[in-house]
Amino acid sequence: MIPYTVNIKLAARTLTGTLNLQNKTAVDWGWQGLIAQGCHSSILIIDPKTSQTIQVLERHKANVVKVRWSRENYYHNVSSPYCLRLASGDASGKIIVWDVVSGTAHCEIQEHSKPIQDLEWLWNQDASRDLLLAIHPPNYIVLWNGDTGTKLWKKSYAENILSFSFDPFDSSNMALLTSEGIVFITDFSHSKPPGNAGKKVYIASPHASPAHTKPAHTAAPVPTGAKKALNKVKVLITNEKPTAEAVTLNDCLQLSYLPSKRNHMLLLYPREILILDLELSQTVGVVAIERSGVPFVQVIPCAQRDALYCLHENGCISLRVCRSTITPEETTDPEQNVYELMYDLRSQCDAIRVTKTVRPYRMVICPVNENNAALMVSDGRAMLWELKAHKGKAAVNPSSGLLPLYTPVSFCGAPLGPNQKRIQDLSLNSMIGQTLIAGEALSPSNQQEVQLKFLLTGLLSGLPLPPFALRMCPPLTTKNINNYQPLLAIGVSLRDVVEEYLTARLRILTFKTCCVCVCLFDRGIEWVSLTSFLSFATSAPNNMGLVRNELQHVDLPTGRCFAFRGERGNDEPPIEMIKVSHLKQYLVVVFRDKPLELWDTRTGTLLREMAKNFPTVTALEWSPSHNLKSLKKKQMAAREAIARQTPDVFLHYSLLQDAESKSESSQAISAREHFVFTDMDGQVYHITVEGNTVKDGARIPPDGSMGSIACIAWKGDTLVLGDVDGNLNFWDLKARLSRGIPTHRGWVKKIRFAPGKGNQKLLVMYTDGAEVWDTKEVQMVSSMRIGRNVNYRILDIDWCTSDKVVLASDDGCIRVLEMAMKSASYRMDEQDLTDPVWCPYLLVPRAALTLKAFLLLQPWSGTFTMDITQVDYNEKDEIKGLIQEQLNSLSKLFGDESDLTFWTVAAHYLQSFCQGSPAESTKPSPQSHLDICHDVLCESSYFQKFQLDRVHLQEVKRSSYEHTKKCADQLLLLGQTDRAVQLLLETSADNASYYCDSLKACLVTTITSSGPSQSTIKLVATNMIANGKLAEGVQLLCLIDKAEDACRYLQTYGEWNRATWLAKVRLSPAESSDVLKRWAEHLCSSQVNQKSKAILVLLSLGCFYKVGEMLNNMRHFDRAALFIEACLQHGVMETSFVEYDRLLRSLGLREGAALWASRAGSAGEELMEELFQGDGSSTPSRPAIKSTAGGAA
């Protein structure tokens, strides 16, 4: 008979536990919708929707310190598909770029051997999406090609670099947080390293800056109360190194640009957040914590709204929203009219219980919706919070200046209907409206007042602290296959026993023993059935070296737990091991300095306590052989003999059944079993147990080549012994042969045979690792050694199935590995997860694009459907089970950053231009403008209001002559000449610029619109520009209303951003359109290569035909066709329809292909004939469709 092995399909996986301190900053939430978290040297991939770990990446040899998801800000097609790509850096300086789906490393990068300080993927150019910027200690920034691992350039700086932040509005600007100050870089480029060392600035208090006297405004009240308190913490940026009394960056925790508005930055300190205006080089807002408040740990600024997510030391997450600069009419106290950027607390979640080992590490928010946050705790927990908006009015003190929050007035450019009160909580910008600025009207009547609250939607827990004790439940056999569940018992500290369901469901059950001593921990576990086990623990020894032993029996179905040894266990030597016999009949309890005890596991009675002269046991193992089968045959024969003596057939049957039931209920069968053990001298003893009878057997003298025996394993005719010197002795009991193998690996801690008939694989645990041996061939199959293969120490081992091992390690992880004991990373698409995961990135590229095309727009059918079963696509079964919820925004659903940005801007301006002429669209209704996070893409009227509001704030916060001069210059460019003259006249007489400022004030006041004066000023401005005085010349041109010429000069000298800003605030729509079109052409040039940004600029100008043409030339056929469909009044581009038709045909969407072919003119007729040539159907007429500008978004 050929032996076979009954196996159960269990995938390799890693169960993680507590985090290392170096993992504190190793967390990121990507546009793909997944969270990456470093745990020691592993990386967890968490799905926040289902709160489950879907992948564990293992290749690092050191602790992971940084992780970064790649950005999705590019056009996706078959050649550039949706992919899960992650970069991670560890404490040894190695960077690995991962293919997360397959669990393999795409490339490895090594520059230095110190921990990586920061990582970031570049997202702001169309040339390549593979560029990865890294900080290598102490002072190097290196740009890598993340696809090939090639170093593109390297730049060093004078100070140690701690972190960096990119300007989200201008990719050439970045800031480095160093040990002494901030370094601003304005010439960052992917093609070459920065040309200079950057501008280095310091943070200092006002009295540490050069002496200056700020003229007191006659109308301004003396600062008292709130304003006086704010001035105490007011700081400014200087070019001089601060003195010892100044506020420095030593305590600065974080530096970050604000993605909600341009040229603003935040600095995080433990007890305050500083908001800096980089044009003014001055703080314009402070978020300070009261003396009794909880300090900050981290701040994440939002892009969709001017809001801050704050993490505190007690694990509380708070949301602060920027206060409106519109003062409520009820406010009459002048003290409350302080003009500041203030961030009011709008919501906060519950805090966690902080201890020495439990602390909040980091917080991440969803970059797509910005209304979901995840808190990472040091004990391995991931707490998932969702921000919810609910109807209601808050009890706000009118004198506080705090305005209520209202819902937005529009969504995707379309205003709310008269009966539509609010939008669903899709994202932060659909929950609350924008912060009002000066000059804007208050909320319309159809807006609802809302309050925000955090709701805990998910909790992912890790394993407790090691050490661990492992024991897999009895193996799967043909007898228990109907009710078998693969359970792994894990003994942990504080007497917790964790049950892991390793297959379909990862349920964690915790049972706590009723022990009052908190220093106890489980030292060993033995299963007595498929659903119950024994675990033992010992307390700390007393003065006499005696302990309190506990041996607990746990029944999993009922949760019942009781002391197996009853009242025994007080003041006795500690238990060394427990061993349950092969038939689960008997239990041997081995003590350190006390004879062993033999128990009956079925009745819980003590069978024998050995004599005091019994040898000291060093290792023990039960034999797999027994006489149960022969006993059952004898009992069955006896019952049949009794039944044959009874003539009545029915009585015969009842007697037979009654005998069997009595035998099973009373457990009358006590089979004979054997066990062997060794003493201190290495002598082997054989003991036979049958019922209450215990008999001594043969004694085998010690082997001279072996040291003190540490462990024994017995299966079939093979007995293996391991000693403290690393020797393995293989005994063939049938052939009466033995063979010793010196492994030279030190103490053999544990050996276990693999389950399954005929499976003679042996798992061996050493102090420095583990090995798998084939006892038939007596040769090693695989090996794992600390420092060579892995960087963790193994605490316990066992077989999970016949071909997989499970290891417990000192990094708090439990690993289920293949027999080769290699990496535990696995393919995500092959896992049978607890809950289905919505992630299109897990699909093959063609399947993901088919799903997107199907869900995006279905004009070929009368109604929108989510039933994909009718699609002629071979792999549709991969997609069919993923569609489970109502789709509101496909770009957000796919985490497609490029798509989301495009359709947000397109939907807004399509709606805006369709409501009226382009000229009229520049005067939007209240709050119907594009969000200010889009900067110059906003309507000119709102952009100008925002800039006026900003310069007003700068004027209030100025504290030096340089600040006053910058404010006056900005006011002149904005056309606010009266206020600019007042600031110019504030210059003190002892200032070196007093004479020039006075003359400039006179010039601004007396300027006329006559021809000669304008010609003279224009000539002077031209000469100044030609001689390097660009800013001064531009000011003069703006004074005579020649802002268009000023923009042209700025663009000529490469000041494109400044020219765009000036055009938005000073020029008419037609004039500014010409300036922005030239800027778009510049963005399309090969030197800049930002065509995606150029398309957004053209969208804001209403150049929809040009946008469609550019999309087609960039081969973005699906986006081009859908965009043109959304603006049919501008004509049809047949080329886009032809290419999109071919794309839909390749994806199997025949009805969609027929629709677009019908719109492609003569070229489409040929496509229609090809499409319906095979089925003999007639060419369909063109279906009627509706314009769906907002639906594409």
From TrEMBL:
Record flagged with keyword Signal: no
Keyword Nucleus set for record: yes
Record keywords: Cell projection, Cytoplasm, Cytoplasmic vesicle, Cytoskeleton, Golgi apparatus, Nucleus, Phosphoprotein, Repeat, WD repeat
SUPFAM superfamilies, sorted: WD40 repeat-like
Region (Disordered) location: 1172-1193
Pfam families to which the protein is assigned, alphabetical: Beta-prop_WDR11_1st, Beta-prop_WDR11_2nd, TPR_WDR11
Localization annotation: Cytoplasm, Cytoskeleton, Cilium axoneme; Cytoplasm, Cytoskeleton, Cilium basal body; Cytoplasmic vesicle; Golgi apparatus, trans-Golgi network
Domain WDR11 second beta-propeller span(s) in chain numbering: 523-822
InterPro entries: Beta-prop_WDR11_1st, Beta-prop_WDR11_2nd, TPR_WDR11, WD40/YVTN_repeat-like_dom_sf, WD40_repeat_dom_sf, WD40_rpt, WDR11
BP-aspect Gene Ontology terms: animal organ development; cilium assembly
Domain WDR11 first beta-propeller stretches: 22-319
A single cellular component GO annotation: axoneme
Domain WDR11 TPR: 960-1129
PANTHER family found in the cross-reference section: WD REPEAT-CONTAINING PROTEIN 11
Stated name of the protein: WD repeat-containing protein 11
Provenance organism: Cyclopterus lumpus
